[in-house]
From TrEMBL:
Annotated localization: Cell envelope
Keywords: Coiled coil
Name of the molecule in the record: HlyD family multidrug resistance protein
Source organism superkingdom: Bacteria
Amino acid sequence: MACSSHKENPIKIETFPVTSPVILDTSYIKEYVADLHAVKNVEIRARVYGEIKKIHIDEGQAVKQGQLLFSIEDYSYREELSKANSNLKNAVAEAKSAELDLVNAKTLLEKNIVSSTEVARAEAKLEALNAKIEEARSLVSNASLKLSFTQIKAPFDGLIDRIPLKMGSLVNEGTLLTTISDNNEVFAYFNVSENEYLNFVTHAKQQAEKREVSLLLANSAEHPYKGKIETIEGEFDKATGNISFRARFPNPDKILKHGASGKVLLKTNLNKVMIIPQKSTFDIQDKTFVFLVDQNNEVKLQNIKTKLRLPHLFVLESGLSPKDRIVYEGLQRVREGDKIIPEPTSIDLYSANSINN
């Protein structure tokens, strides 16, 4: 009929899963690339000039404190010590003779045979010879010290590194002979951002165990012994904005070596934080948004701020409350202003809870 009305097709309202932010206690583990250094690592250098007479150890060998490592030709140093001892003996003999002269001069002065000038001259001579004795003793001590430097010994228990020179090589004062490392404990140095540093020191005040860390080795195996953060550098690196942490790890099995690398695993506890799924968010021009569902089931754009990314989840800083409802997934099919049929869905907390284990 001509007067019949034309019926429009009704707008189809889709069903979307919705969820709400969850408040919980959790933790997360952050990995930091670390450089490993033996707690004791010392370069062994020659302290005198000469030829390497003998090498008593081999590369990679474990040595004890005081063990002989290198011998440098000592003939010239023995000669120097012998000469210094002879000079000392001569100086002592001259001083004794001068002492007798002084006694005689004083006796003659009492008999008015010599003047007081002769006594003063004898005293001055003895004083000069005593000074000569002190100088000779200093030369003996110096020669003895140089001779001792020809026998190079281990300063502590440790492992010998590469030995670049061979027997017969000529060395000067300061020539590198080898390096010795005590690997019973190692330092792990790693860099942390300013934000992570602030989070660490805030929680560390509340939890003493917060300083405990783990170490992941280059083969992805975890070091069997826990370490502890001991020190934090005094200032941030202006170029990177990071600050350096140092952790100490026990190494009784000597697995860790000086110069190796690894990853420090730092666990941070989070108390009463609000989380939402990452897949419920999207970015527009460096800002993060969610689709907020109001009381009329209408979708609205909501800007949020996140402060931490967990596996599949975001820790919220602001923008939502636990009572709010947001579109859980299917964001590409919804637009601001759309009406939806909400289907309540729980957040998968497995990711958040598994971080605690």
